[in-house]
Request: fold
Amino acid sequence: MFKFSISFLRIILLTSAIFILTFILGAHFHKDSIWPFGKGYYAEFKLLKKYGLNYKEVLKEKDDVYRTTAHLINIKKISNFDFDHFATSNEYQNEIEYIGIKGNESNINKIKPLEIFLAKFNDETENLTDKHKILEIENNLRATDVLVMHNKRIFISYVAKINEKEELLKIIELVNQHGNYKAIDIFESTHLYISDIDDKSTSSGGKMIQFSNNEILLGIGDFAQWEYAADTYPNIDLDFGKMLVINIDSKKTKQYSKGHRNPQGLVKV
Reply:
């Protein structure tokens, strides 16, 4: 009986060890949501390799992987390079110029203005050579995207607070007039009555890509309309949950697709 108990205990311990090892390997390599100790390497490297990025360097500098819903980007950590969204505005021989925006967190405690920066990065020294604020936009709830078109026109999308009860998604064009920057209104979505800013502005979408020489394709989230205004959400005249084509010269819009929840990644091929 005693020998049987020892053997049975060994079986239990061996089974437990195999289970724990399987859990660690499985959750870690496949990046299972129940893995509590960070990101699994294998699945992430597979994505990096798919997009032609240097996954061996990422192994050394795991904290330098910036994730979006569309792709993984491997960049070196740069001091003060702190933007919610950024886009390349100009490229020189050894220097890259960026337009970067900084807004509020998804869960808003204290509303801050939308800050727009011009930053320059030296490709040889791998350091910022300049970063300064060029414009500040009031009544911002959330910064959502920056788009620099082929002709160097710059557009910024963000969620704007109209008053205590209304918000909307907005696009402005950033215009440089002899070194002084100003914002020109290009597009405003349907106004949304807000009873809870935090939840609604999170599902705002706001991603932009160049659609043609003078058109932008914009993704607008549903702003959680199924919960707060279920009777109006299917209305085809409202902008929520839609992809819109916006003419940046005439400012006219047309619907491209509908039925989206929170479009934050767009690619034109």
